[in-house]
Amino acid sequence: MLIRSIAKTLILPPALQLVCIALAIVCWRRYPKISRALGLLGLISLWLLALPVVSWSLQRGLEWNYAPIDLTQAASAQAIVVLGAGRRREAPEYGYQDTVNRLALERLRYAATLHRQTELPVLVSGGSVFREDARPEAEMMADTLIQEFGVPVEWREGGSRNTAENGLHSYALLADQGFSRILLVTHSWHMARAERVFQNAGFEVVPAGLGFARQQLGPEVLDFLPSANALRSSRYMLHEWLGGWVYRLSP
């Protein structure tokens, strides 16, 4: 998993662009044309990916088939499944203990809202990606739901390391109890890949996405100025596009 994580880091922004710029500097004397091409590629792509209008376009391409859930769709659902999104390691304000990251917290908050609206039991799904991660993410997710949102957690699926395993392991927990129709809680831009995985595992999925792109009549001036938030969002979107292609090509 470490090698896979390093590879993903190097082929996604901003690392890929920085590698192009570094190669441009190294090649400057011997291969000036290649150097200029690499430098321009790195700088221009970095600039574009840092524009809000580009990051939102990438997100809309992932979530175009989804909309915020209509609770009438949840009438026949049997459980809420919340997918993990990563951890924040050794947070000082929590006694240097690992806790859920920002994205995971957004998913848990929405899951808590859905639980109050539907009273459906909740399953949290997320394991330990690296060996040094002592606690599965599902345990931290459960603690957050119980202690901070007052929502009980019925199942803790702590063996998965990615979305594909989220689906398989969650089905193993719920199928024996006759639960097959679920509300699937994850970010809108992650929903297409997650829904496909959970359907392949055997679930009937009601998408319960969150974090949809801003709806507006037209772009604003600031949408064409680079920002760190837009670059981070573009990285998430490109990661999801890449993940979707990999999952489609996988047997």
Describe this structure as you would to a colleague.
By secondary structure, this protein is α/β, with parallel strands linked by helices. It has two domains: 2-63 and 225-249, no CATH class; 71-210, Rossmann fold (3-Layer(aba) Sandwich), CATH 3.40.50. Helices cover 51% and strands 14% of the residues. It has nine helices and seven strands, in the order ααααβββαβαβαβαβα. α5 (102-118) crosses α6 (137-149) and α7 packs across α8. The protein is globular and about 65 Å long. The two termini are 19 Å apart.
Descriptive key words:
251 residues; alpha/beta; Rossmann fold; five-stranded parallel beta sheet; two-stranded antiparallel sheet
CATH architecture label of the largest domain: 3-Layer(aba) Sandwich
Annotated CATH homologous superfamily of the largest domain:
HUPs
* Arithmetic mean pLDDT: 93
Strand order of the largest sheet: 5-4-1-6-7
Distance between the terminal alpha carbons, to the nearest Å? 19 Å
**β-strand number:** 7
Secondary-structure element pattern, one letter each: HHHHEEEHEHEHEHEH
Question: What's this, in brief?
Answer:
The protein is an alpha/beta fold. 51% of the residues lie in helices and 14% in strands.
Topology:
Layout (H helix, E strand, L loop, with lengths): L1 H10 L3 H12 L5 H18 L2 H12 L15 E5 L3 E5 L5 E4 L1 H17 L3 E4 L11 H13 L5 E3 L5 H13 L5 E7 L3 H11 L2 E7 L17 H22 L2
Parallel strand pairs: 1-4, 1-6, 4-5, 6-7
Antiparallel strand pairs: 2-3
Helix pairs in contact: 2-3, 4-9, 5-6, 7-8
